[in-house]
Amino acid sequence: MRILSIAMFLLAISAQSFAQNASIEKEIKELSKAKWQWMADKNVDKLEALFDDRSKFVHMSGSWRKERELEIIETGSIWYKDADVHDVAVEVFGDDTAIVWNRITLTAHVRGNDVTNEFTVTEFYKKEGEDWKLLDLTFSKVRDTHEIEH
After folding, report:
1. Mean pLDDT in order along the chain per 10 residues (150 residues)
2. 15 part of a folded domain
3. Which of 43, 71, 121, 142 is the most buried (most CB within 10 A)?
4. Nearest-CA neighbor of 35 among 141, 124, 111?
5. For position 1, what pLDDT does the model report?
6. At CA 127, angle to CA 42 and CA 80, rounded to 5?
7. Residue 147, in any domain of the structure
8. Other Cβ atoms within 10 Å of 139 Cβ, number
9. DSSP-based three-state secondary structure for 67
10. What does the pLDDT read at residue 138?
């Protein structure tokens, strides 16, 4: 009887953890999707609140911190016109850390030209209080046949 009680307790904890992870996954997917729209809309106010003060951004042409990324978006140096998201994978660590992989076709306006590239974009999020903060966003150029392993 005692073993059955312990097994039931462990099963209940596992189910609760799985449900919590699924909820965090859904929340992070929605936040990531909103981020792409805010970038397209050049909504630096929303992005400023999302990006951690120590966040880093890695692009094909270089890497920089939050202030530079916001400046680039606000001035339109890079205008993320459309991120067509083909696939999303989320991995949750505990209840305060998540990694997102987006496979996208990005149409951006760069140096006076519209360009389209295939990327897998990796995003790291950390929960601070009630809010998720983006710590890192890295673009990796890939072939259009690239798949994210789930």
Report:
1. 57 51 92 97 98 96 95 95 95 96 96 94 97 97 79
2. yes
3. 121
4. 124
5. 63
6. 20
7. no
8. 19
9. helix
10. 97
Q: Which residues 6+ apart lie within 8 Å of 109 measured at CB? A: 76, 78, 79, 81, 115
For 93, the token pair is 């660590």
Phi, psi of 57 (to 5 degrees): -130, 125
- Confidence (pTM): 0.82
Domain assignment present for 95? yes
Residues composing the chain: 150
Q: What's the confidence (pLDDT) of residue 10?
A: 47
Q: Rounded CA gap, 80 and 39, in Å?
A: 6
Q: Are 55 and 70 in contact (CB under 8 A)?
A: no
Domain that holds residue 117: 2-141
Domain containing 31 — which CATH number?
3.10.450.50
Within a domain: 87: yes
User: Could you tell me which of 150, 91, 95, 146 has the C-alpha nearest to residue 124?
Assistant: 91
d(CA 67, CA 147): 32
